[in-house]
Amino acid sequence: MLLSMPAVPAIMTALIENPGGIEESSIELAEGEPGRLEEALSALMQQGLVVRHFGFVSLPPGGKALELARKIVAAFHDLKSLTETSFLIRGVLTATEYYRCLVHRDTMFAILTEDGADRDHLDKVLAAEERQGYVENVDIAYRLRGNLKEKFFPFIPHHHYDDFVYMHSRAVENGQGLLGGPAVSVVKERYLLANHPPSIAEQARHYMRANKPHILSRVRNEAFDIIWWYDRY
What does the pLDDT read at residue 139? Predict the structure, then answer.
């Protein structure tokens, strides 16, 4: 219940900084809605997590209350991070707004971790997206001759998928080159294909435009370059 109230972390953070208590009117909310402050304070008081007295709010006496306040704030930070991570993943996977695109999984992870995303959160959120059917896994085979692997594209427009697979995997059949060619090893690269409803995809793109426009532009530009390459050749 408390995790559904955005005013709670603001209250608890203020009380951690001022364990002796503060005026309720001095608590600033990001959303600026007094009704949410009253709702959150009432819920915290009912749970015995704060004490209210004539417009003054404080933590109950004893170190346990301060410890609980810190745990609540940490839980909110974790929840906020997971929510933002879901926007990041969905934003990358649906960046090419007017056509679907397969995204190389490790490339996406590298882009997001370089930008500060938590790798454990990326793994958790992607697993949840897969369970909900929002993300499909696609493995594409590449040839490996000695230590030299075929170059793989980080983004593959879905409408060029058949062309791509034919060009890059046609010479692989049971580990042997076709037409009597030399044997080759086969490696597989994991790609992700988004199946998000339009409303969810647009929500993620809105987040990316506001917070990570450089990532959104990179995905779109590189995917478009691949379309140009295919159409040219």
Answer: 87
